[in-house]
């Protein structure tokens, strides 16, 4: 039987590009996300090449996650790679202007959702053994503070530390864990963050060269397809045209 990858957030951006990248290498796909019609379109596109199972899923719902994993059909059960990609940023404003609900949504999705899926698939990945992978989508926002990063950056710091701690507990099982931390990448990310402001999204990416979804999909595929004895702990990837600025100083 071929390799099977389980991707969360496969309806857009990195997740959708990763589905195409794994399919190109012959992996069977389990694709999830909330937007069923997008999952169906991707299934339609890829199922001539590889077996594709889709599951409409909100990762924040632990019971729904458990049911999706329990109901994986024959041929999709021995998941070899989990791509914990579903996530979002909201509220680019300063912390003191943000609705508490937006903070909760980021924590519920990026932290609780990611642990829900990981918990449900750990037994399967451990059974898969040597060369199985968990690839978590962190962010440079989890390493570097910036204005408006508040809870989003903190959720991605959680993702990174959770991955390192998982590695300790999974030592000896053969299961690898990687934190991929992208910088600026053009996907629907900013559209979601600004609650549908296409002009703001276009402005952010205009005049520079952001990463593409395909760039990150390539990195995801790379870490999951390395020889079984290699674990990339953390892969931070930025566009060449993005860097840091000096410390900010408040002056009279
Ligand atoms: N783009 C960047 O600059 C960037 C940089 C660093 C890290 N990241 C991280 O990379 C990951 C993918 O982001 P992207 O840039 O590809 O953004 P995107 O194009 O907006 O894709 C996000 C995906 O997450 C899914 N998702 C969101 N909430 C969900 C929920 N509650 N349950 C299930 N799926 C959910 C969305 O699917 P549905 O809406 O259909 O559910 C969508 O498929 C995220 O974790 C993000 O934080 C992005």
Automatic annotation (TrEMBL):
It comes from the Bacteria. InterPro entries: KR_dom (IPR057326), NAD(P)-bd_dom_sf (IPR036291), Sc_DH/Rdtase_CS (IPR020904), SDR_fam (IPR002347). Keywords: Oxidoreductase. Residues 3-187 form the Ketoreductase domain. The keyword Oxidoreductase applies. GO terms for molecular function: oxidoreductase activity, acting on the CH-OH group of donors, NAD or NADP as acceptor. SMART domains: PKS_KR. PANTHER family: ALCOHOL DEHYDROGENASE (PTHR42901). Belongs to the short-chain dehydrogenases/reductases (SDR) family. This is Short-chain dehydrogenase/reductase SDR protein. It comes from Azotobacter vinelandii (strain DJ / ATCC BAA-1303).
